[in-house]
Write a structure and sequence with these properties.
Blueprint: E1 9-14, H1 20-29, E2 41-46, E3 50-55, E4 58-60, E5 62-67, H2 70-87, E6 93-98, H3 109-124, H4 148-152, E7 162-164
Parallel strand pairs: 3-7
Antiparallel strand pairs: 1-6, 2-5, 2-6, 3-4
């Protein structure tokens, strides 16, 4: 049996209006090697007292799980992030990054993204609010699950006051 890949996550607050240069500067100050961003996995979350009610009153602040090319992708996310932020204006946004590496430093970002999406759907009954597709999970790679619950779930000690659910008329609602 293959040993599970250890995961280290970095957290950072973002605002929808942050430019790529501002975000890049924050990443550099956190000691993140920008050359690794194309091989990263990131989880966009609400950072305050609001979470998203997914199904059967299971809630989490996670709104999107993605991989690779974060600097370019944040620009494509900016439009819906601004709309979401306008709805919960006092709520900061947070992004968690991981740079998964296997033996011989092989990048495993696609495998981790697929694993996170699968775990999210299993736990919350749906994909995150802004994810449209479910990637295929590789059975050849195993990840240590110690930090997965903190990244996908509410996190330890969080005291959410609201769990929001978009209604059918809302652009954020998923068509099932």
């Amino acid at each position: 049996m293959t040993e599970a890949i250890s995961l280290k996550w970095f957290s950072m607050r973002i605002d929808p209006g942050d430019t790529t240069a501002i975000i890049t500067g924050r990443l550099e100050r956190k000691g993140i090697d920008l050359k690794l961003l194309p091989q990263s996995v990131y989880v966009l979350r609400l950072g305050g007292k609001f979470s998203i009610d997914y199904k059967d009153q299971r809630h989490t602040p996670v709104v999107y799980i993605g991989e690779g090319k974060f600097r370019g992708r944040i620009n494509s996310h900016r439009k819906w992030l601004k709309r979401l932020h306008a709805l919960v204006a006092e709520t900061p946004l947070q992004v968690k990054f991981c740079f998964p590496r296997g033996p011989d430093e092989v990048a495993l970002h696609r495998e981790l993204e697929a694993f996170l999406l699968s775990e999210f759907k299993r736990k919350f009954g749906a994909l995150p609010l802004q994810n449209k597709q479910h990637e295929r999970v590789s059975t050849a790679v195993k990840f240590q699950e110690k930090t997965i619950g903190q990244v996908l779930g509410p996190g330890s000690g969080k005291q959410f006051l609201w769990a929001l659910r978009p209604l059918k008329a809302n652009d954020f609602a998923k068509i099932e």
